[in-house]
């Protein structure tokens, strides 16, 4: 292999290695793949920024290795890349559509005595998804080409030859625009410059991504969430988020409050209000890089939304109420919200109702107001009690017979009276750790319907919840009180101990424990949890079931992360960190995947010592 080539173009400004290698190949009259193979290089590794291949390319072309590496993304594995000293996900740097500035490309080719594809080169910053504008010409970055295959997508000379006519004809030109503050900031950060703003403390892509998510939410009023934002206007999203973010947490909280006041109805939950901002931070963007943004959103919701036990906040169950609204407090004390508001105003907990809907958002400290609320008259008649807790009339009689929801005062000379606060507290206790259910499907059912279907008394189902026999409890997010309690009928049926039912199938067992079926099958087949062989009542064939005793053995030995968080009164995020820091890993004695379950023997001692 020749150590130095004589036909080599000049390395372009901010040019990545794959673009340069493709142009070198074109200069020498061969395809990029043939050129790199003949030179003992790999075009795929050059695209991935492999240090050895980039160093060999630099020697071959008499270039500085540092200059070639400077604007070349480096693949780190697991869809992670490093670019300009920043680690980022592939979605930030490896889009299938390659964008660029046609004015830059036209400028590259003008006055050159070589074909356009040998002169025009990509700029590394064009690869970074948040970059929307060429700061040299103030021209928006436009799609140049799209290719699923990496080798085709980054064979720059071949693609430039295809689009050269459109570049010179002005077909790809768009109106220029002034750079936004976000455009200037992102350009400076890529050049290694910092302006001293609050955002500079964060990794570049998470900071830019948060600006995008917040900006898209801010635009919801003018551009509904279900409509995809036009690519040519995407810069408006980043810009809007940046204007509320660059100063720091206080401005971000102001933006969240504005969204809360103006988007949708006041009674809608945070998931619906904040859309992708909530979903992505709660469920997808779980890395440490996003932790402070996640904490800001979570704290804002916790201090401005009247969430209580049975609610879900960013993927974890709410175990304790921090704030009340007039509505949630009225439900708790069983008082008309209009009357309660007047009392709360007089006591100084809330302000007088103002014009518009803002008053509906007003919340107050639940712990501070507890003595006041406890002192209010919460004793109600049967009808008022049933209405306040959403208990059907026929159910209250059955529940009373079963020993639940007894009146506080029941004498011969007056009608019985019930304590609404005690009743609601009991229901909230039953809802602790419940899964949020928006549309009950499959086996989910409220207690009255489950009782009718299985011919079992409601008190028996409640006893199963109280004693922890029922492992899956749901909360119907659009209902309140007793009717918001959901159970799975198959699990209730299993616990009824019917003589002709040997147990539940492996599939139902997996559903109840939050495991995938394959993991549950492996647990049984490898003998990690017992099972029972029985006759299938429908097919007559022998098959493996899990009897109540088998399931009890499983739960004594194993626990899921969510279940443990509820038991210990901790968030599952902090619990996961605690387990990881102490080397406690999910159960996997033979290297097989059994899902996110842990052996109690490994974690009980750790948590007891904490």
Distance between the termini: 63 Å
* Overall number of strands: 21
Which regions contain 5 or more consecutive residues with pLDDT less than 50?
355-359
Largest β-sheet summary: 4 strands, mixed
Roughly how much helix do the residues carry, as a percent range?
40-55%
What is shown here, in short?
The protein has 610 residues and is an alpha+beta fold.
Written description of the protein model:
With 610 residues, the protein is an alpha+beta fold. The strands form 9 sheets. It has a 4-stranded mixed beta sheet with strand order 14-16-17-15. Strands 1-2-3 form a 3-stranded antiparallel beta sheet. α28 packs across α29 (517-525). Residues 355-359 have low confidence and may be disordered.
């Amino acid at each position: 292999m020749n150590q130095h080539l004589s036909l080599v173009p000049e390395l372009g400004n901010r040019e990545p290695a794959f673009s340069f290698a493709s142009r070198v190949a074109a200069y020498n009259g061969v395809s990029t793949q043939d050129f790199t193979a003949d030179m003992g290089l790999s075009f795929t590794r050059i695209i991935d920024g492999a240090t050895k291949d980039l160093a060999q390319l630099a020697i071959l072309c008499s270039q500085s290795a540092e200059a070639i590496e400077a604007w070349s993304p480096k693949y780190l594995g697991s869809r992670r890349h490093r670019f300009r000293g920043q680690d980022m996900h592939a979605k930030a740097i490896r889009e299938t559509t390659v964008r660029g500035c046609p004015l830059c490309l036209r400028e590259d080719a003008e006055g050159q005595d070589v074909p356009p594809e040998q002169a025009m080169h990509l700029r590394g910053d064009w690869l970074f998804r948040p970059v929307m504008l060429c700061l040299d010409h103030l021209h928006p970055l436009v799609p140049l080409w799209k290719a699923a295959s990496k080798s085709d997508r980054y064979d720059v000379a071949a693609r430039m030859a295809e689009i050269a006519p459109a570049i010179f004809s002005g077909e790809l030109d768009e109106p220029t625009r002034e750079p936004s503050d976000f455009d200037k900031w992102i350009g400076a950060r890529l050049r290694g410059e910092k302006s001293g703003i609050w955002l500079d403390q964060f990794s570049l892509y998470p900071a830019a991504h948060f600006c995008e998510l917040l900006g898209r939410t801010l635009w919801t009023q003018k551009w509904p969430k279900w409509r995809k934002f036009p690519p040519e206007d995407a810069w408006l999203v980043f810009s809007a988020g940046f204007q509320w973010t660059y100063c720091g947490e206080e401005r971000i909280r102001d933006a969240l409050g504005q969204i809360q006041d103006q988007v949708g109805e006041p009674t809608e939950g945070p998931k619906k209000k904040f859309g992708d901002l909530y979903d992505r931070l709660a469920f997808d963007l779980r890395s440490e890089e996003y932790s402070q943004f996640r904490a800001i959103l979570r704290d804002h919701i916790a201090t401005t939304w009247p969430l209580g036990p049975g609610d879900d906040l960013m993927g974890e169950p709410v175990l304790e109420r921090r704030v009340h609204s007039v509505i949630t407090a009225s439900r708790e004390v069983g008082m008309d919200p209009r009357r309660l508001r007047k009392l709360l105003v007089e006591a100084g907990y809330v302000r007088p109702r103002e014009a518009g809907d803002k008053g509906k958002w007003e919340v107050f400290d639940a712990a501070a107001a507890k003595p006041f609320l406890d002192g209010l008259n919460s004793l109600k008649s049967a009808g008022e009690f049933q209405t306040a807790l959403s208990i059907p009339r026929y159910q209250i009689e059955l529940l009373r017979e079963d020993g639940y929801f007894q009146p506080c005062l029941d004498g011969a000379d007056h009608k019985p009276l019930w304590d609404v606060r005690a009743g609601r507290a009991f229901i909230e206790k039953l809802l602790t750790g419940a899964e949020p259910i928006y549309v009950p499907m499959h086996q989910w059912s409220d207690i009255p319907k489950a009782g009718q279907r299985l011919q079992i008394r409601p008190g028996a189902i409640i006893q199963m919840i109280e004693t922890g026999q029922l492992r899956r409890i749901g909360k119907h997010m659009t209902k309140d009180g007793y009717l918001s309690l959901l159970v799975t009928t198959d699990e209730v049926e299993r616990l009824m101990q019917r003589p002709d039912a040997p147990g539940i199938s492996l599939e139902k067992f997996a559903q109840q424990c939050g495991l995938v079926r394959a993991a549950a099958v492996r647990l049984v087949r490898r003998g990690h949890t017992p099972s029972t062989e029985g006759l299938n009542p429908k097919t007559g064939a022998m098959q493996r079931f899990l009897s109540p005793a088998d399931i009890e053995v499983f739960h004594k030995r194993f626990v899921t992360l969510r279940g443990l968080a509820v038991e210990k009164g901790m968030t599952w995020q902090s619990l996961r960190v605690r387990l990881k820091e102490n080397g406690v890993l999910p159960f996997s004695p033979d290297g097989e995947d059994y899902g996110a379950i842990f052996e109690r023997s490994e974690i009980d001692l750790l948590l007891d010592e904490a």
